[in-house]
Amino acid sequence: MTVKLSFSEALADPAQLSVTWELVPGRGAREKAQEHLVKMAELAAKDPRINAITITDNPGGKSAIAAYAMAVEAKQRGIDPLVHFTSKDKNRNALESELYALGRADIQNLLVMTGDYPGAGYAGSAKPVFDFDAVHALRMITKMNAGDYSKLPATNFFAGAVVSPFKSTEAETMAQYYKLHKKLDNGAKFIITQLGYDARKFDELRKYVDSNRLAVALVGNIFVLSLPVARLMNQNLIPGCVVTDSLVDKLAAEAAQSNKKELQLLRAAKLYAVLKGLKYDGVNIGGHGLGYTEVQYIMEKGEELSADWQEIAAAEFDHPQAGGFYFFEKDQATGLNTCQPAKRSQTGSSLKQSLMDVVHGVAFDPKAPLYPVNKAIAKFVDKSWLKQPFTLAEYTTKTVTNECRFCGDCAMHELGFICPMSQCPKQQRNGACGGSRDGWCEVYPGQQKCIYVKMYEGFKGQGKEERMKSKYMAPCNWDLHRTSSWLNYFNDRDYNSSKD
Ligand code: SF4
């Protein structure tokens, strides 16, 4: 008989495939979506195979009831909740306050994400707020867990994050994997994949984690895909979710059949079998309006099919993106990957980055010949009437070169001289969010490249791309807003001197 384990216990048990079931709280307080969630939580609580229910936070950037409110109700019904804890729409203080609320309700499992760009709201579109990225939030949680933040007793959060192996370009794939390292370095204990249906990509992530000896539990996402949703994902209308043309064609061919829902559930069960075969530590099952009996079917059928997972992977989940990049060479026998990393492109350069590097190397780097004299000048200017004109001159220069937003805590020289404050709509300082597609930014598809794609290409030209995985970038200190970042840098006030 299966003993019901908590989410963290199940992930730690090599004999068990942890199962979480994703439910969407929806808009309103007492509507169908909330009643469905509560009812399903009650059923999930009675099933020892379901370790937690996952509760989404305003998916698609649209307002819904707060995830933690529904998590409290789920907990009362006897099931461990896994709350999507996104850093969108909230500044760091609001995030901290939410963590206290979660801690008080004894809700420990957090899936930490940056979150979707805000969509339409009351009286127009909401103001985008991205004070922290997922790495900042993970770091704050880890410090709270260690009890070395705010002098409060240690918390006990079990935090994880998301990664997408389903990127089509080398730059986006590497940006995801580099950020994965930062997430783990800052406390993520488990990783849930974004949505995709390519077994070779699931295998790639498994092998990437194993070959880098990363200590993290992997959870594969299984979404019961209907044709309308598949089309939306295919057209890049649901950020980060990848459904290829070949899969849409398959679903379209099934659409005329009377048992199309059964086929959709069977596909989900097959993916369960593949993920179990690939030695994922858990699966996260979701789908529009999914009921308990359907989740039950996916688990049972998935177990039944798991012995045949390799044939299923080859037959059902061979959906590569056109010209898509894979980190490892293909294993021709299985259609998955060998352990041999694929050759990466040799191209990539940025003239602007090279020029700015020269300037930085001469004037700003602590080892630069002009550094001591610049530091002395900055000390003098800081206390003189020159401070205001100097600040204005810096701001004007940087506005011309980088559309400066006057944050006063400039990190451009760490980020390939690309400003995340002005050129990333989510102001990400530690790596790409999950929403890019084919190199384009989630918010401006077809118009603006993701800054981390540009950054990777620039660093690659200099053979320095690995720095994208190691350098933690502290969040902006808003005390410095509208002040000179050069004076802050030389006078030891910016993020380089912060204790974070
Ligand atoms: S620039 Fe990149 S990281 Fe920033 S919002 Fe766009 S896709 Fe996300």
UniProtKB/TrEMBL annotation:
Name the coenzymes or cofactors required. Answer: FAD
What GO molecular function terms would the record report? FAD binding; methylenetetrahydrofolate reductase (NADH) activity
Q: Which transformation does this protein catalyse, written as a reaction?
A: (6S)-5-methyl-5,6,7,8-tetrahydrofolate + NAD(+) = (6R)-5,10-methylene-5,6,7,8-tetrahydrofolate + NADH + H(+)
For whether the record's keyword set contains Flavoprotein, the answer is yes
User: Gene3D superfamilies this protein is in?
Assistant: 3.20.20.220
One GO term (biological process): methionine biosynthetic process
Database matches in InterPro entries = DUF5981 (IPR022026), FAD-linked_oxidoreductase-like (IPR029041), Mehydrof_redctse-like (IPR003171)
Methylene-tetrahydrofolate reductase C-terminal-like domain: from which residue to which, for each copy?
A: 389-478
GO terms under cellular component: cytosol
- The superkingdom of the source organism is Bacteria
Q: To which protein family does this belong?
A: Belongs to the methylenetetrahydrofolate reductase family.
Q: What protein is this chain from?
A: Methylenetetrahydrofolate reductase
Species classification: Bacteria, Bacillati, Bacillota, Negativicutes, Selenomonadales
